[in-house]
Amino acid sequence: MDNTSSINVLFPSLPCGLHEFAASCLVLAQPTFLVFCLFVSLFVVKAKGKSRKKPDLPPGPTPWPIIGNIPEILSKKNKPTYRWIHGFMKELNTDIACIRLANTHVISVTSPEIAREFLKKHDAVFASRPVTMATEYSSRGFLTIAVVPWGDQWKKMRKVMASEIMTPARLSSLLDKRTEEVDNLVRFIYNQCKSNSGSSAVINLRLAARQCTGNVIRKMMFNRRYFGEGRKDGGPGYEEVEYIESVFTVLHHLYSFILSDYLPWLRPLDLEGHEKIVSEAMKVLNGYNDPLIDKRVKEWKDGKRKEPEDLLDAFILAKDSEGKPALSVEEIKAQCTEMMFATLDNPSNAVEWAMAEMINQPEILQKATEEIERVVGNQRWVQESDIPRLNYVKSCAREAF
Fold it and tell me: Does the predicted TM-score (pTM) go above 0.70?
């Protein structure tokens, strides 16, 4: 039965000319009715989904609408944010807490067992990195590996780092550069002792550690000790001091609490002044790194270099599966800077903490010294090849890291 016949049955009294008009209206109404039914079905399904009970979040302070717990953090300016978090977690007697900052849920954990759930058992779920203003600057728009959210760029950089940079063969080829800088460190410490001679010689351990790690990574990355001339006693020159200060300025702000990281519409205001500080520090770092990298890239393009001699050459020569350069110049610059962050910060901090603990516990220092004298002797310096046999010293180093 067609639509006209249906109209004749339903409305036999209609004039003949209106039957076709009514039939066309019925045809037009059918799609609209179907869309309406679909909309109602989706609404019912969504309502049922909302009616189901969601898993409970960990305990935490009651959030304000829209802005969450940001007012509580801002009201505690007299203490660091982490202390405020530890304080209310202690009040709640909990090892895991949830703090809502605008639309972001921040989970704080103090229990090793719970932390293991995040970092080991469910590592793939929590493998990404938070996006912050400082990480955007430090990675040149998320081009690196350490602070970049999980995704294609992270996978690409991880592949290059694993296959071209952090390989046993590559590290072995740079052994002479590391050995040279250890000799320079001993000379620098000797000169410090000589200049500070008196009742007792005082060593600036932080300066020495940062000086050594900075020289090592510059030698491995750019095949040079200094950006400038350096001091006569083997210490850092003005350029190295400025560089290291800029590195630690960026690291200090990398994941510090910045309001605009949670309320992005406030970023143009730069209320805390953090963006200005980080951008100026990155300008200093890029001012030293970029000319060296640009010059090296040009040398390889012009055929002036034939053999790789450092990590920068390895980055430039890295190829993808199609034989094309694996990294752009911007990616090389970003990753070189990030490696500077990692190698200047972590080892120097570990040395400082390890020595502090050994001074506080002289028996540990004595035991480590005796092992070195027994295994290496006192006729030569400790070499990297000695480390596998220095089990107690290795344990101390691992504890510091």
Answer: yes
